[in-house]
Amino acid sequence: MTDTSGRSGAGTEPRGPRLTGEERAMAAGEAGEAVASAMRIVLGAARASGAARLLPVESAHIDSCLYHGVAGLDFAERLVRLGGRTAVPATLNVGSLDLLHPGLARPAGQDAAGARRLMDAYTALGCTPTWTCAPYQLDHRPSAGTHVAWAESNAIAFVNSVLGARTDRYGDFLDISAALTGRVPEAGLHLTANRRARVVIDCAGVSRALLSEDAAWGALGIVVGALAGIRVPALTGLPDDVDEDRLKALGAAGASAGGVALFHVVGVTPEAPTLAAALRGGLPEARHTVTTTMLREARDLVSTPEGARVDAVCLGTPHFSLTEFERLAGLLRGRAAFDRGTTVYVATSRSVLAAARERGLAQECERAGAVIVTDTCTYVTPILDPGTRVVMTNSGKWAWYAPANIGVDAVLGSLGECVSSARAGEVRRDESLWR
């Protein structure tokens, strides 16, 4: 007879969490086999993390919809066949296709068919087809203190840090399992004790002129990721008027270069009105000081071209926001178009694109020659021309991953520098800011 209590047999594996009557019923299959399968995965994660119980979540964000092969497709389609439906609102991360612009993404052969089937399967499970790595740009955003089950490293960092909601690191299969059951282990960053800062990083010595450039925040994220690893950092000495786009860039790069899932910016983010509050009465394990030189070294670490030529510019990793569209349109309005040999890609979500079109911002970008990408990302699926060798970006995350993922050289620069370089067809950066 199967034990559905969440406890394991003596001497076999760690004791499981205490379950409510509803949770025992789900594990026993009373809510259907899809939910029972999902509950087995959630309980396995709970036992591995030593969770005493499960927590209900208000929403989920699913990263499993990006096609990596047949195993992920089999898993999703099995849940559909078993009648699975999400128990909480669930948004979808990027897929491997741009469904609004057919043919723009070019996965090979069977991968294209598998990618489409996978996207269809997650929609059939009741997930909202948002296809964005920046779900925090949607209308509904979790409020501080609420528990959610979000996947995608930059989304995890943003929802924990900037919004103050609580999620642990949820990856493929566990993310949709949480959405089907509405439950996650009471562990990790859901627990207050695990959210206190362990590392203090002083940024007061960084040039304010440099911090006015978006590329600096990607470089800062790379430095923070290296210094903090998987620990929670508290950053001091940063401007108190820093906007969400820069915090987005910081968290995305920190999660890429390290394992940052939560960061505190003292005086800015909700759990860090003061350094003492971020530390929650404890002492830091380490203190570090960041300099402008360190940011330049981080920028150069992910800038690898041998020549000055720029074949493409990639913006929107994480997805371009409406305010970024406003900034880009302002840089383009009434000025020269891009060099014919340089293609500019702007990756964004469907919802942000609709708002940008309503305001005429997307059209301004397209008139200058920009190619708008939705539903996917330029560093995870074949979109760039096969002859592309050097790509400029304002995203530390894109610069970190793209060389290995798609075999190009990256150049990290500000949005303004990317636009200037796209017009000139070669790298244009203001080096004086980085000294």
Would you give an account of this structure?
The protein has 435 residues and is of the alpha/beta class. It folds into 3 domains: 22-191, Aconitase, domain 3 (2-Layer Sandwich), CATH 3.30.499; 196-300; 304-428, Aconitase, domain 3. The chain has 16 helices and 14 strands. The protein has helices at residues 21-27, 33-49, 70-81, 109-124, 153-161, 174-181, 208-211, 214-228, 244-257, 275-279, 292-301, 322-332, 350-358, 361-367, 396-406, 415-424; strands at residues 54-56, 60-62, 90-92, 149-150, 183-185, 199-202, 233-236, 264-265, 286-289, 312-320, 343-348, 371-374, 390-393, 409-412. The strands form 4 sheets. A 5-stranded parallel sheet has the order 12-11-10-13-14, sandwiched between helices. It has a 4-stranded parallel sheet with strand order 8-7-6-9. A 3-stranded parallel sheet has the order 3-2-4. Helix 3 (70-81) packs parallel to helix 4, helix 8 packs parallel to helix 9 and helix 12 (322-332) crosses helix 14 (361-367).
Task: Give a topology summary.
Blueprint: H1 21-27, H2 33-49, E1 54-56, E2 60-62, H3 70-81, E3 90-92, H4 109-124, E4 149-150, H5 153-161, H6 174-181, E5 183-185, E6 199-202, H7 208-211, H8 214-228, E7 233-236, H9 244-257, E8 264-265, H10 275-279, E9 286-289, H11 292-301, E10 312-320, H12 322-332, E11 343-348, H13 350-358, H14 361-367, E12 371-374, E13 390-393, H15 396-406, E14 409-412, H16 415-424
Parallel strand pairs: 2-3, 2-4, 6-7, 6-9, 7-8, 10-11, 10-13, 11-12, 13-14
Antiparallel strand pairs: 1-5
Helix pairs in contact: 2-6, 3-4, 5-9, 8-9, 8-11, 9-15, 12-14
